[in-house]
């Protein structure tokens, strides 16, 4: 049991999960606003040995140094790699601090978002229509860049709808290729397809000036990553100098507030993965991580 567990900001736990926190700590402190700076985070953590946070705050080396009692950090948000995390995991590990994050809790909503927006644009159900005549997904050449969980779900959904699917990933996905989703090197993929979906880890920028040039004009781009998958200026040039359209759900995925008013940018400025079901899955995984921490500790 933790001596003190601090939730330093809103972490989207459902009420049942929030109540369960009291089973794992002698004292639980929950903050319902985002700390304004590093000093505020240090103050909130204080002498706590357990900490929960979301993606809206960062725990770096200085905070870890100033809060020596921390034994466990639970990230109530996606953790793909130490490099892309909003916790300094390498420093934490050196200090013997266990850091657990979660994955794959909001992907279903993201898939529904891209399917909805793509169909609306192809058919002209909204204010815009891609071509002169409405189009189905049938035979549409689609490239998915990053075939993790969400990328794979998007690719398989569009394949089911009759799309001609290609992918690029750091590692080959033989099981997806067996389903007819074809691998191409990035440059070849960009030249081949009419629509791309970038489904990448945070802080990975693949779409730069050269890549947009290869992708060409009259094209569609969706970014489903947490942050930009593109160089901001390169995206702006691509949008300004061709009949191209860009889609994303959140400002974080767009990367620049000024682009919200661009006529070829379609950004809802809300996370499509934040659904009731996603909060249920998130809460379950956060509690399971705490239980795993104590189970591993007891087995040492």
From TrEMBL:
Supply the name of the protein. Answer: Dihydrofolate reductase
Annotated organism of origin: Miniphocaeibacter halophilus
Q: Lineage, please? A: Bacteria, Bacillati, Bacillota, Tissierellia, Tissierellales
